[in-house]
Amino acid sequence: MTTRESNNNPVEVGGFCLNLRESHLIVLPIPNSNLGLITSVEFHIGITNNSSNPLPLHIYQSVVPQLVTSDDREIPISVKESELTPSPVNIPQQPNWMEKFTRFFANLVNWLKFRNSAAESEQILYRMSLEKYTSLTFTGKLLWYNNQLQLQFTVGNVLYFDALQAQEYRLRFVGIDFNTNPPNSDIQMTEIADSEQPVSQFVNLRLVEPLATNKNAVEVDGICFETVVAESTVQVSGVEIESPIYVEFGMKITNNTLAPVRFNLFSSLIPQLAERDRYREQTWPFYRMEIAPKESHFPLVMPGDSISFLPFLANFYWEKNHLLYLRIDAADAGIWCFSKLNVGKYYIHFAYYNQNTVLEIYDSDLKSIKLIPDLLTGFIFTPYVELNLV
Questions:
Q1: Were both Cys, which of 38, 168, 174, 314 would link to 206 (CB 3.0–4.6 Å)?
Q2: What is the spatial distance between Cα 330 and Cα 306, in angstroms, rounded to a whole number?
Q3: 25-29 and 203-208 as β-strands: parallel, antiparallel, unpaired?
């Protein structure tokens, strides 16, 4: 896929480095302005401290997004106050026992952040940042507000870029206040001038309109990504408790280029469910078992051909508490779950998410490792499609 590669390295300053761990290309369809739909995308940032001193900072107030056009014109960022809500915290890979503890502590911090005052929560998050490595997650939301297309980030207050259009932007994150001592602190630290704050590398953020001939699809560099919903109306009322209501939906990919393209269909399908003016949070997939990828999970699609990228299994079901759930089982044994649904109108779409151009698989016939090369990379969302639960 064609993207701009210049200025694509993080800038380390004073031993501090911001690393934006995302695909080089993120594609978001512009939602229908009349439906109040929200597309949510997560940005994962690693802060590495290579200096000899700790890095005291208020985590979610020390990194801000920066958006520029393809001709390097910076889009102004605006701020509006927002009620304090919990923010997700990602923890880097660690040994199992340590990972369990740190995830528990991160969840505790989030709960305290929601329960306590902003000042108290900032102090807690500050204490978490005195390590050599910290991982943050920022959620960007693309939506219409006051007839303007916005990209919003909630970090205590809401930061947003306004009046966006269907075009390609470049997004990165910039460190601020990395040299701010907390009150009553005697910690020795590295001083960084305000004009020399660390910045992450850029990713390409492309906003696209759905196709005029098919509002369920977008085309990205000659490849068409389409939301597939076999039945737009699903009967859920009157169904017995814990009886699955099977549905078929997912993504169809068509190669309209002149060359073969290889896709990752093993672990790259991400679902999102929305209601009008509300994005439905889903659990990140959990795994009951481990399934080894096969070569068939990485098909080479010839020019003019299509593939159907459907979940292994998807169903609605009523729990004993009379709440409706949507469960989606992926090909890699991951399980996505949307909870506390009800009868009404929803919208669903999917994302293709693959960061690896080459993957290794075990060939059971040859009893050796085999490389799968030339995989399409990117984070590409399809348009929302209506789904009625009756």
A1: 168
A2: 20
A3: parallel
